[in-house]
Design a protein that fits this description.
Elements lengths: L13 H22 L5 H13 L7 H21 L2 H13 L8 H15 L2
Helix pairs in contact: 1-3, 1-4, 1-5, 2-3
């Protein structure tokens, strides 16, 4: 008998929303530093739908757009407050932290910021 995979939290749970915000912020920073462009709100919302779809979950478009816009604000704030080198390192660190086995003080701090942003809205 195969062990059952742990059930995933609902897409609209606080933790899932914070993780989506973190992941999309990381993606935005990576795209900005690699290509000099910011993904649109629609592109971010579509990416969230794709990520959730892999696990059979979904969020309404309004929620996905909200998270996309919030991630845009956070990514631009981070990019504006860091040197290019520090921004590249931050983007890299955040992308690495998408692996649950990767441990990072910076990623934990940024995840806490994502949670705080969601709690404040």
């Amino acid at each position: 008998m195969r062990p059952q995979a742990p059930s995933l939290p609902p897409a609209d749970s606080r933790g899932t929303r914070a993780a989506l915000l973190f992941a999309l912020t990381a993606e935005r920073l990576s795209v900005f530093y690699e290509h000099g462009q910011w993904p649109t709100a629609a592109q971010g919302a579509s990416l969230i739908a794709e990520w959730l779809g892999r696990s059979g979950r979904s969020l309404p478009l309004a929620d996905r757009r909200f998270l996309s816009e919030l991630s845009d604000e956070l990514a631009r704030q981070l990019a504006g407050s860091l040197s290019r080198e520090a921004g590249l390192q931050t983007a890299h660190e955040m992308m690495e932290a998408l692996d649950p086995n990767y441990d990072s003080d910076l990623a934990r701090a940024l995840m806490a910021e994502c949670t705080k942003l969601l709690d404040g809205t």
